[in-house]
Amino acid sequence: MAMLHLLAGVQQQLNLALTVVWVDHGLRPEETQREEHVVSRAARKLDLPFIARQVNVADFAAEQHLSIEHAARNLRYNVLRKAAQDRRADCIAVAHTADDQAEEILLRLLRGSGRKGVSGMSTRSGDLIRPLLHTEKEELLCWLQEKGIDYCIDSSNDDLKFLRNRVRHQLLPFLEEHFNKGIRKSLHKTADSLAEDENLLAALTEAASSDVIRQGPAPPACDKTMRIMRQPFCALHTALQRRVVEQLLWQMDTRAGFDHILLIIKAAASGRNHSELHLSRGLRVGIFREYLELSYPAGNTPWRGRLFS
Asked: pLDDT tens digits, residue range 187-208?
C-alpha cells in the first residue's frame, strides 16, 4: 500500500501508467475479502485500473511437489506477468523492503547460496523493480499511519512453520540482541558490495559462456539441446566454470544444485567418452570426447532410460 501511494504520487512527474494487481492465493479465506476491499478502494481513490485474480496454491504445491511459499511465489508472478503483458507494461513493481533484503540474505546463507545469492535482491531484475528495497519497513508503516492510509497485515507472516518467519522473528532479533545491533545495516552493506562484484562476474560469465556453450540438434521430445565444449571449458577458472554451468542449468529449466554443478565440472575434466549423468526430471548429460551434451530425451519429466546402451 505504501508503494502504491508513493508511485501514484509521482506518476505525472515520471509519466507512469499504473495498474493495481491483487492476487488471492486461496490460503487465508477469512482475510482476503477485507484485503481485496482495501486494495480496490485505494485503486478507485487513486483513479487506477484494478485487477483481482485468484490462484489455488495448495493444489499447485501438491501437484508440483513444491513448498507453499515456492508455489505461491510462482503463481503470483505468473499472474503479475500475465497482467503486465495484457496491459503492455514495461515492468512490475514489488514492495520488498530493506528488512526483506536482510531476511533474504540470511535465508540464502542458510541454504548455502554462492556469491550471487548472498548479494541479495537487486533494485531491478529483468521485468521486476523494487523501489523500496533500501527503505525500512518501520519507516513505511509510520508514513502510512501519518497519511491515514489503510493497510492490512498478513497473518501468515507470523506463522513460524515458514523458514522466512523464523528468520524474521527469531534469528534476526537474536543476532541483534547478542551479536550486532546493526546487523541489518551490515547485511545491506555486504549485499551492496557483493552486488558490485557480481556485476563484473556476470559479464565475465556471459563472455565465457559464449566461448564454450553451443546449441546442439534437439531430438523430437526435447525443446533444446545444449553442449559444453570440453577443451575451452576446462581452461576456464573454476569459479567461472561453476557459474557457466549454473547459468546453463537454469537455461535448461532445472535446479542448479551445487552437487549437480560439481558433477558436470568433473565430467568435463575426466568423464569417459559415451558415459552419462542422470540429473533431475529426466535431464541427461551425455559425455563425448569433445563436448558434454545436455538434453531431455523423453521431455522434461522423470525418466529411467539411458542415452547409451
From this structure: 989 888 888 888 899 899 999 9
Three-class secondary structure assignment of 184-252: HHHHHHHHHHHHHHHHHHHHHHHHHHHHHEEEECCCCCCCCEEEEEHHHHHCCCHHHHHHHHHHHHHHC
Q: What is the pLDDT of residue 65?
A: 86
Instruction: Let me know if 19 is exposed, middle or buried by CB neighbors in 10 A (0-12, 13-18, 19+).
Output: middle
Give the structural domain span for 242.
217-295
Say whether both 25 and 135 belong to one domain: yes
Confidence tier at 222 by pLDDT (50, 70, 90): low
Which distant-in-sequence residues (6+ apart) come within 8 Å of 263 by Cβ? 277, 279, 285
Q: What's the CATH code of the domain at 45?
A: 3.40.50.620
* pTM for the full predicted model: 0.73
Count up the domains in the chain and report the number: 2
Residue with cell 575434466: 269
